[in-house]
Amino acid sequence: MTYTCLVVDDEKELAIATCEYFNMFGVSAAYVTNKQDCLKFLKEHEVKLILLDINLQEDSGFLLCKEIREFSDIPIFFISARQSDDDILMALNIGGDDYIKKPYALSVLLAKVKVVLKRLEDTKERLPMQSGRIRVDVKARKVYVEDMEIELKNKEFKLFLYLFQHPNIVITKDELFANVWGDAFFSDGTLNVHIRKLREKIEKDPNNPEIIKTIWGTGYRMEL
């Protein structure tokens, strides 16, 4: 499952309120209240941005940030009632991207998050992506297999791109419906037809696919 934002804050009511506000404006958000749950969440889900409190019960947001930076460059916004310049400098020096003081206005926080997310998307769209024999130019909406351009219709491209951007993990049918079609209630038949058309265009042998694998009863995995 993919989330836009993960709130890591031991003030549970504030974390819930932040998530509810973000979700109301189309920014999918979830929350955890401690370091262990945060690391577990990041292993199990894709997250585009983290809102991280400094004080996490017996743990430190500073230490958690350092640990995350060992395996990810995901944007991290510190959110804290601590006001000192030393705390702000520490947060930024260890890899934080911004420091937002509590109490914060949810509207302002959401605006800051959207600016960073838009910048990330713009950067991603400008950069061609390649894995093995497949290259994707997102800006031009083109896919190349062994340097040969493959013609994809709009939904085929969106489906291919979502799988390509989440390689080597199982993507459930519900996740594909929600992120490609924007609706969790499309029929399996719709998805199956689009998967078959993709295989016919990118696989050497569509009947024995090596790239888009079916995980029976669950979804699909793109192996790159």
Automatic annotation (TrEMBL):
Domain of life of the source: Bacteria
SUPFAM superfamilies: CheY-like (SSF52172)
Record feature DNA-binding region, as residue ranges: 126-224
Keyword DNA-binding among UniProt keywords: yes
Response regulatory domain sequence ranges: 4-117
Entry-linked Pfam families: Response_reg, Trans_reg_C
Alphabetically ordered keywords of this record: DNA-binding, Phosphoprotein, Transcription, Transcription regulation, Two-component regulatory system
Record-listed 4-aspartylphosphate modification sites: D53
GO CC annotations on file: cytosol; protein-DNA complex
GO biological process, one term: regulation of DNA-templated transcription
PROSITE patterns: OMPR_PHOB, RESPONSE_REGULATORY
MF term (GO), any: phosphorelay response regulator activity
Domain OmpR/PhoB-type, residue spans: 126-224
Function: May play the central regulatory role in sporulation. It may be an element of the effector pathway responsible for the activation of sporulation genes in response to nutritional stress. Spo0A may act in concert with spo0H (a sigma factor) to control the expression of some genes that are critical to the sporulation process.
Name of protein: Stage 0 sporulation protein A homolog
